[in-house]
Amino acid sequence: MIRRSKILLSVFLLILFLIILQGFLGTFKGEGTEREKKLEISFYAEFLPAQELLKKEVMELLDKYQIHLYIAISEEKMAALTPVLKEYQRRNIEYSLWPVMSKEDGYWVQERNLKKFSQFLDRIFEWAKENKIEIREVLIDFEPKQFFKLVDVENFGDFLFWARKTARENIGKSKFEQSKQVVRQEIIEKIRSRGIKVTATFSNFGLEEIKGFSTAAQDFLEAPVFGLPWDRIDFQCYNFPILARSSFTHPDLARVLYSLTGRARKYCHTEISFSVGPLSPQEFSSEEVIVDIGAVLAAGVYRVNIYSLDGLLEFTEPEKEIERILQARPEKPPLTIGATWLIFLRKMGWFYLRSLQFLKNL
Question: SS3 for 73?
Fold first, then answer.
């Protein structure tokens, strides 16, 4: 009996492994058919002071390379950003607003602070009207408050402990479904009714359930995203933190990024983009960011957001870094054992979250 159970378990694991391998590591339809498309890049500007954004050399850089900016805006930064955005409008420098709240209120958007965030949006729109600030797009950044504690994670064991604790705190299907309706009515409809585009950005782990069979990963991330009328969905794939805290190599992570991009392109029925980085002299160089961009391009997606302008300006010659990045070409990363193992671990994590969500709703 025990031997039979072991055989059945082995067969199950083999089938599961083959499903993962086929679904995530295959060559995606359409690869190589969109080479004529041009890479579109945006940069995030999160912590740069307003006076830095107004520097002549910074504005000339943005204008010369037609760089679109996602500018973080908080209650405290509204007044300081007013002359910046007016000048950007005058110079036709493209920007979108990226609302963030105080750390006490969660900073990013989460299930538990949706009402406060909706009220914050009202204040942003009032400020924009009073100051004649044009808003074309608003970025809704979904990240759970527990992401603040990821800086303390030093190894895989620490990460598993953090993930288990976060899952037990966040998972709750009924709460998630209620939040989804609040996001639709209090955020998406509020923004779009003003003729403004709205983009959602959240962790690439959400791609585990892009087919719509589950909400466990989104529930874990406190990010009601799929099934809502976004103009675009952006997936955050910041590889440097994983490289710094694990034995995975950059080729491993680039291959996973390629696989995730192809999966998003295949199953997501709205416009998509991917965020990569962080770009800075201390973290990812432009050459390393190019590897990730090449993987995204190879899977057929041509819009990439880079974190961040703050890091770019730390380089001695930011212009040369931009020129290198714009030369990125589609390059399919090789299949590695590490990539296969990482995708398997992701899938196991998703199954754990599904099981936890099911048990919590019994």
Answer: strand
pLDDT of 159 reads 85
What digits encode the pLDDT tens for the residues 87-108? 999 999 999 999 999 999 999 9
**Contact present, 306 and 277 (Cβ < 8 Å):** yes
Distance CA 312, CA 309 (A): 5
CA–CA distance from 198 to each of 169, 184, 266, 358 (Å)?
Answer: 28, 11, 22, 31
Closest CA to 284 of 314, 323, 256, 247: 314
Instruction: Write down the pTM of the prediction.
Output: 0.91
Is the sign of the CA dihedral 198, 201, 204, 209 positive or negative? negative
Q: What is the pLDDT of residue 5?
A: 55
Q: Tell me the DSSP string of 200-253.
A: EEEEGGGGGGTTSS--HHHHHHT---TTS--SEEEEE---HHHHHHSS--HHHH
Nearest one of 275, 326, 329 to 304, comparing CA atoms: 275
Report phi then psi at 169, rounded to 5.
Answer: -80, -35
Tell me the residue type at 354. R
Secondary structure of the chain: what % helix, strand, coil (to 5)? 55, 15, 30
Task: Identify whether the C-beta of residue 306 lies closer than 8 Å to the C-beta of residue 250.
Answer: no
Quick: pLDDT tens for 339-352: 999 999 999 999 99
